[in-house]
Design a protein that fits this description.
Chain A: Its EC number is 1.18.1.2. Chain A: It is an enzyme of class 1 (oxidoreductase). Chain A: Belongs to the ferredoxin--NADP reductase type 2 family. The complex is a heterodimer of chains A (336) and B (105). With 336 residues, chain A is of the alpha/beta class. Chain A has seven helices and 21 strands. Chain A has two domains: 3-124 and 251-331, FAD/NAD(P)-binding domain, CATH 3.50.50.60; 127-248, 3-Layer(bba) Sandwich (FAD/NAD(P)-binding domain), CATH 3.50.50.60. In chain A, 22% of the residues lie in helices and 29% in strands. In chain A, the strands form six sheets. In chain A, strands 1, 2, 5, 6, 7, 8 and 20 form a seven-stranded mixed β-sheet that branches. Chain A has a four-stranded parallel β-sheet with strand order 12-11-10-16, with helices on one face. The longest helix of chain A has 19 residues, at 299-317. Chain B is α+β, with helices and mostly antiparallel strands. Chain B has one domain (2-101): Ubiquitin-like (UB roll) (Roll), CATH 3.10.20. In chain B, 13% of the residues lie in helices and 24% in strands. A five-stranded mixed β-sheet of chain B has the order 2-1-5-3-4. Chain B is globular and about 35 Å long. Classes of the chains: A alpha/beta (336), B alpha+beta (105). Chain A binds chain B through residues 43, 47-48, 51, 120, 126-129, 159-162, 183-185, 188-190, 232, 246, 248-249, 251-252, and chain B through 40-41, 44, 46-49, 66, 69-70, 73-80, 104. The complex binds flavin-adenine dinucleotide and FE2/S2 (inorganic) cluster. FE2/S2 (inorganic) cluster binds next to loops of chain B.
Chain lengths: 336, 105
């Protein structure tokens, strides 16, 4: 098992978590970031990468993904480290008051301060309401394709009508022995080119297209074997399959953070606005995940919270050192 | 007054009264009447978390627009009568309509 040692572990690599690295770096504190998404940027990269943002000081307009890219450039001199695609599950405090953070992939981070910048929570796959679905997770049911080779010569059913359902159907058509795409409508609004390809593959018999239908149930003995579907005219059918891949995108859920003994009000962590500390010393919460009287869920506000938070985190991490606040214009940005 | 009936996830129904001259979306009304609906993107037709189903009402309200269909296709539980609450402007002919909340809590 890998253990990473750092000053601050930041949970969430959204804009606020990223900017916290910069503020910590100015005080020469090292950061490790963990995010369940495979890329940095939080809501900006996941929900609205192409949207212009108008309320970042100094930028009359900036595209969301461009802001994330700029933040990455800004923090590069401080060499933050990342565990992406990993969800933070557990948090323990050790006898020396430091923390151990554990992810679902077994990564451990030992740090002196924890900064929760978890936004709306973990982005998790949207799951269709099918009985026994969770029972078959890892036994034929998966919500994302990590290794396409796992589907070679297998019978695969995909469901969904967005771009990822179309793209993976096309991709797996060359790998799997049988590919079926189940979609509730009879047209696709994904990229027209991909939709055309899927219709062509169906017409030439390379894939099965089951339109105006949805999945009602799944069966199997230890591993997925059968998928039941129903069409809009209530006709029922079943498909023999080894794998089911529902592709309905991601949705945020507060997730494991809710169980860490922090004071929570309506899915947000209560903080002291003096330094954005939580009820547990050494744990801070900044950005969309926190709540206090007058809270605004804006990037700008999260940046401000990050700046105040690190002042207190510094004293927590280095209680014996004196912190004298200086503007960056005095020192510049000194990398380490 | 426009009166709508909102059916929650548990099947319970509650009437909501809205003044006629107000320019709000159904999503705004649901939030203001303390119905639990995520509406993560604040009504920009980006997140699909404000999913509702038309239960009763004029025929024209049963059909989502293309913008809505783009997003409804990404939901596992959307049906032919699904709509995005943020894309529905409150209008007088909605009086008496019944909507069911489908979006995630
Ligand atoms: C459509 C839309 C438009 C917006 N427009 C604007 C705008 O114009 N201006 C503005 O200021 N704000 C805007 N906002 C709000 C802005 O996006 C948020 O305020 C901002 O993203 C908050 O940043 P954050 O870093 O706190 O959280 P997020 O961006 O939500 O990032 C949090 C990250 O934490 C991760 N995470 C959570 N829990 C865990 C865990 N247990 N383990 C691992 N990772 C975890 C998540 O995967 C996520 O990547 C908009 C929001 C939306 C949805
Ligand atoms: S609030 Fe996001 S799509 Fe309606």
């Amino acid at each position: 098992m890998e253990t990473i040692t750092t000053d601050i572990c930041i949970i969430g690599a959204g804009p606020v978590g990223l900017f916290a690295v910069f503020e910590a770096g100015l005080l020469k504190m090292r950061c490790h970031l963990v995010d369940v998404l495979p890329q940095v940027g939080g809501q900006l990269s996941e929900i609205y990468p192409q949207k212009p943002i108008y309320d970042i000081p100094g930028f009359p307009t900036v595209n969301a993904q461009e802001l994330v890219d700029n933040l990455m450039e800004q923090i590069a001199p401080f060499h933050p480290t990342f565990s992406l695609g990993e969800r933070v599950e557990q948090l323990h405090q050790l006898d020396d008051d430091s923390f151990i953070i554990q992810t679902n992939e077994g990564t451990e981070v030992n740090c002196k301060a924890v900064v929760i910048a978890g936004g709306l929570g973990c982005f998790e796959p949207r799951k269709p309401a099918i009985d026994r679905l969770e029972e078959f997770e890892g036994k034929g049911v998966a919500y994302m394709i990590r290794n396409p080779e796992a589907y070679r010569n297998k019978r695969v059913v995909l469901s969904g009508g967005g771009d990822s359902a179309l793209d993976w159907t096309i991709f797996l058509a060359n790998i799997a022995s049988e590919v079926t795409l189940v979609h509730r409508g009879d047209t696709f609004r994904g990229a027209p080119d991909s939709a055309d390809k899927v219709f062509d593959l169906a017409a030439s018999g390379h894939i099965n297209l089951v339109l105006q239908s949805h999945i009602t149930g799944i069966n199997g003995n230890g591993h997925l074997q059968e998928i039941n579907i129903i069409d809009h005219d209530k006709n029922k059918a079943s498909i023999e399959a080894d794998h089911l891949i529902p592709l309905y995108g991601l949705t945020p859920k507060l997730g494991p953070i809710a169980d860490w003994g922090l004071n929570i009000d309506k899915s947000a962590i209560e903080v002291n606005t003096f330094d954005y500390s939580t009820n547990v010393p050494g744990i801070y919460a900044i950005g969309d995940i926190n709540t206090y009287p007058g809270k605004l869920k804006l990037i700008l506000c999260g940046f401000h919270e990050a700046a105040l938070m690190v002042q207190s985190a510094f004293k927590h991490v280095y209680p014996e050192q004196k912190l004298s606040f200086k503007y960056t214009t005095v020192y510049g940005v000194t990398a380490f | 007054m426009i009166t709508l009936t909102i059916e929650d996830r548990d099947g319970s129904r509650r009437p909501v009264e809205i003044p006629e001259d107000i320019n709000l979306s159904l999503m705004d009304v649901l939030k203001a009447s303390e119905h639990h609906i995520l509406a993560t993107c604040g009504g920009m037709a980006l997140c699909a978390t404000c999913h509702v189903q038309v239960v009763e009402g004029p025929e024209s309200y049963f059909h989502p627009t293309d913008t809505e269909l783009d997003l409804l296709d990404t939901l596992p539980d959307a049906g032919p009568d699904s709509r995005l609450a943020c894309q529905l402007r409150i209008k007088e002919d909605m009086d008496g309509m019944v909507f069911r909340i489908r979006g995630e809590a």
